[in-house]
Amino acid sequence: MERWRLRLMPYQFKLEYRPGRDELNPADYMSRHPHDKPKRDNAAEAYVAYISHNAVPKSLTFDEVRAASRKCPTLQNVMSAIQTGDWWNDPTLIPYVRFRDELSIYDGVILRDHRLVIPAQLQDRVVDIAHQAHQGIVKTKQLLREKVWFPSIDKMVEEAVKSCIPCQASYPGHNKREPICPTVLPSSPWSELAVDFSGPYPSGQYILVVVDEHSRYPEVEIVHSTSAKVVIPRLQGIFARQGFPKVLKSDNGPPFQSQEFADFANACGFKHRRITPLWPEANGNVERFMGTLNKFVRACVSGNRNWKSELNQFLMQYRATPKSSTKISPF
Q1: Which of 39, 118, 120, 204 is deepest in the core (most CB within 10 A)?
Q2: What is the pLDDT of residues 72-130, one digit of tens each?
Q3: Would the pTM count as exceeding 0.85?
Q4: Is-contact 258 240, C-beta < 8 A?
Q5: What confidence tens digit (pLDDT) does each residue in 139-150 have?
């Protein structure tokens, strides 16, 4: 009944008791004469099972979390307290007491609402997984809070990010000017896009970046030149996957001033809008993403890792992390 109450909390309803002798509540045949082996379809248990299995990070298995929970004395005491209601005789339960109404047990693991409670043995591993793309403290916390929870999770994330040598070596600093006026959020996704280049990198390559102004969803292509002949086929590939926009915003770089690019915009049916020269703040969304992208590249180089092979992992975590401006992930 407690799980049903939690499951029904999003709804407003009124519960009335009507006795069986009431003419509005006649006893039905199936409830009085069930089969010998009735099939039980418990929606609450199915919901808890769904949450449990889908809240596990992809690089962990549910069996690993369950096995580690069985070996963790603290979580075993928490399970006992959930079942008995005795939270006050064990000092190890103090970090869990304030959340006791949100905790439940399913199949050997503990849930706090829709998130898995991670045992101490796996906490460092979970934080390392969330910080693989070298996002900052706030983004790493947001990514973790989607799936898991454990006491002092915020403090552990802060210490992990502050002690990450690649992050500290690649941090750009605080001397960044804020834009004078924020960009108005478009009414629909993929209707207004921003495009720019990052690079050149030591290999002589560039990264073509296209960002949706509505959802902040990024598309990235590695190119060897910024000429229109190279850029246009890559944009055609992006538009083939996502569709044509209404407006494409760019700076005044060489490929965007060519007649070839103007003909491409007319053929695709979108408006090409160029920002004020020498004022990159007018293209703030894509510039902000390129700052995060360049930080990731520098972190990979300082850690002797191939940033090209890990680019998709970075994009996957960036697209899955909620944005502070929209409160939801770009995906």
Answers
A1: 118
A2: 999 999 999 988 888 888 888 888 988 888 888 888 899 988 888 999 888 888 898 88
A3: no
A4: no
A5: 999 888 888 999
Interior/surface letters 146-167, b for 16+ CB within 10 angstroms, e for the rest: ebbbbeebeebbeebbeebebb
Positions of the chain with pLDDT under 70: 20-42, 48, 51-58, 172-183
CB-based contact 287:277 (threshold 8 Å): no
| Count of other CB atoms within 10 angstroms of residue 53 | 13
Amino acid identity, residue 317? Q
Q: Which candidate, 181, 237, 243, 183, places its Cα nearest to that of 208? A: 237
C-beta separation of 273 from 183 below 8 A: no
Q: Rounded to 5 degrees, what are φ and ψ at 227?
A: -75, 155
Report how far residue 3's alpha carbon sits from residue 10's, in angstroms, rounded to the nearest whole number.
13
Question: Positive or negative, the Cα torsion across 60, 61, 64, 66?
Answer: positive
Burial grade of 28 (CB within 10 A; 0-12, 13-18, 19 or more): exposed
- How is 67-85 classified by DSSP, letter by letter? HHHHH-HHHHHHHHHHHH-
Q: What are the two backbone dihedrals, phi and then psi, of residue 284, each rounded to the nearest 5 degrees?
A: -65, -35
Q: For position 271, what pLDDT does the model report?
A: 92
d(CA 130, CA 133): 8
CA distance 18 to 56: 42
CB 329 within 8 A of CB 319: yes
